[in-house]
Design brief:
The complex is a heterodimer of chains A (204) and B (218). Chain A has 204 residues and is of the alpha/beta class. Chain A has 6 helices and 8 strands, in the order βββαββαααβαββα. Chain A has helices at 41-48, 81-91, 98-103, 119-133, 149-164, 198-201; strands spanning 3-12, 15-25, 30-34, 56-60, 66-69, 137-141, 168-172, 182-185. In chain A, strand 1 and strand 2 (15-25) form a beta hairpin. Chain A is elongated, with a radius of gyration of 18 Å. With 218 residues, chain B is mostly helical. Chain B has one domain (2-11, 20-217). Chain B has helices spanning 2-13, 21-37, 41-62, 66-73, 76-81, 87-116, 121-149, 155-182, 188-217. In chain B, helix 1 crosses helix 6 (87-116), helix 2 (21-37) runs antiparallel to helix 3 (41-62) and helix 6 (87-116) packs antiparallel against helix 7 (121-149). Chain B starts with a helix and ends with a helix. The chains are: A alpha/beta (204), B mainly alpha (218).
Chain lengths: 204, 218
């Protein structure tokens, strides 16, 4: 279950953002995605998760393997923490939410409505969702937003445990998680307009 | 799939879920009609099937804009799209949940509201039958409209404009069944047409809704 990406080009809102991107992600590996704001990290993750088609290039090994966590957590405020997790567990056909509750220290909050949680607690719940999906490739878009230092550590431990079980992770983040993963800087892949003649070239 | 249905039902019944909103609207519309047209019972008898059908249709419309918009806003639509569930199943379940929380209560309430409009006795059973056959089509067509407008600001208004014309065939044949039933006429033809429209929309529209949703999620 290696994810192989070859010569990928993607667009956001019809404008190409990244081009010629190639990498592979094998079992037990983590890849940290870096690059300035607006470069297309989120678009890349959305493309790999299958939410939008690429302009060009191939993605192999992504089908039904990816658990995707976007900027928003997809939580229902009127359901409790346990109900939210149970829902995602049954959608993905797994039934054990205890491990996820333990990993993100949510046991005490299990019966609270998700709408009453703090931003950091919501984020922890959103990340705990990854554990109940049972999918091998995690794709996380800025997972540590609004987490405190202790929670970031909790998250890093969860990713490490996931990698130890043969999973893999692709994480777009701006902070150092202390994971021994490769760093993929997408900056050099920034799509640039191509000059048609010398006159165009003078402007670019 | 069952998990999604149960979650949607649970959300509808919890605070702010909007359950009963359509029902209350239906009640108010039918109560207001005698005030506006006057209390002649013969006139009310004539217009009762049409008014009840129109009231049910508008009540159905009321909760459509929340059908997919809430899931889109909190990001769970994206997550559902990457889950093992096909989007066709997601929209079908969403429509089913909408029917169970909006359509079915309207069907059950209609005979009681029929009394207020002096609906003739033979009309009651036909009213319930026609609504029972017609409301699923309204939920499925409404889901299609919700999929078209998901992610748009003020999409609710556009949704009504898109969906109301699509409701026309259902309204014509549904109200016709109720009207003919109330006046003791033969109901088979409009009933078959109504059933056919519902069967076709339930069979085909989920695919269209899912396709539209895929484009909208990009």
């Amino acid at each position: 279950m290696t994810l192989i990406v070859t010569d990928l080009s993607i667009a956001r809102g019809g404008v190409p953002v990244l081009e010629g991107l190639s990498f592979s992600l094998g079992a037990g590996q983590a890849l940290i995605l870096r690059g300035p704001n607006g470069i297309g990290k989120t678009t890349l993750l959305r493309t790999l998760a299958g939410l939008q088609p690429p302009l060009m290039g191939q993605i192999e090994g992504a089908e039904d393997q990816i658990a995707y966590a976007s900027h928003s957590d997809g939580l229902k405020p009127t359901l409790t923490v346990a109900e939210n997790l149970n829902f995602w567990a049954s959608v993905f056909g797994t039934h054990d939410i205890q491990r996820a509750l333990d990993a993100f220290e949510l046991n005490e909050l299990a019966d609270r409505h998700a709408g009453n949680l703090s931003a950091g607690q919501k984020r922890r719940l959103g990340l705990a969702r990854m554990l109940v999906t049972g999918r091998p490739i995690w794709m996380l878009d800025e997972p540590t937003v609004s987490l405190d230092r202790h929670a970031v550590q909790m998250f890093a431990d969860a990713v490490r445990a996931h990698l130890g079980q043969g999973g893999s992770a692709l994480i777009a983040t701006h902070i150092d998680l202390g994971l021994d993963g490769e760093v993929l800087d997408v900056g050099p892949n920034k799509a640039k307009p191509k000059p048609i003649d010398d006159f165009d070239g003078g402007f670019l | 799939m069952i998990a999604l249905l149960l979650r949607d039902l649970k959300l509808a019944f919890r605070a702010g879920g909007g359950f009963g909103l359509g029902l209350a609207f239906f009640l108010i519309v039918t109560v207001l009609v005698p005030f506006s047209v006057g209390p002649q019972s013969s006139l009310l008898t004539t217009i009762a099937p049409g008014v009840l059908w129109l009231g049910a249709l508008l009540a159905c419309l009321l909760s459509l804009d929340r059908l997919l918009a809430l899931d889109w806003e909190d990001g769970s639509l994206d997550l559902l799209a990457t889950a093992p569930l096909p989007l066709e199943a997601v929209v079908t379940i969403k429509a089913l949940a909408h029917w169970l929380t909006t359509g079915l209560p309207l069907v059950l309430a209609a005979p009681f509201l029929g009394v207020l409009l002096n609906l003739p006795v033979p009309g009651f059973s036909w009213l319930v039958i026609s609504l029972l056959l017609g409301t699923p089509a309204m939920s499925v067509i409404g889901t299609f409209g919700a999929a078209l407008t998901v992610g748009l600001k003020r999409g609710g208004l556009l949704l009504s404009l898109l969906v109301l014309p699509l409701y026309v065939p259902t309204l014509i044949f549904g109200a016709e069944v109720a009207r003919r039933g109330a006046t003791g006429m033969e109901t088979q033809t409009p009933l078959l047409m109504l059933a056919g429209i519902t069967a076709a929309t339930v069979a085909l529209l989920p695919f269209a809704s899912a396709a539209v949703l895929r484009i909208n999620l990009r």
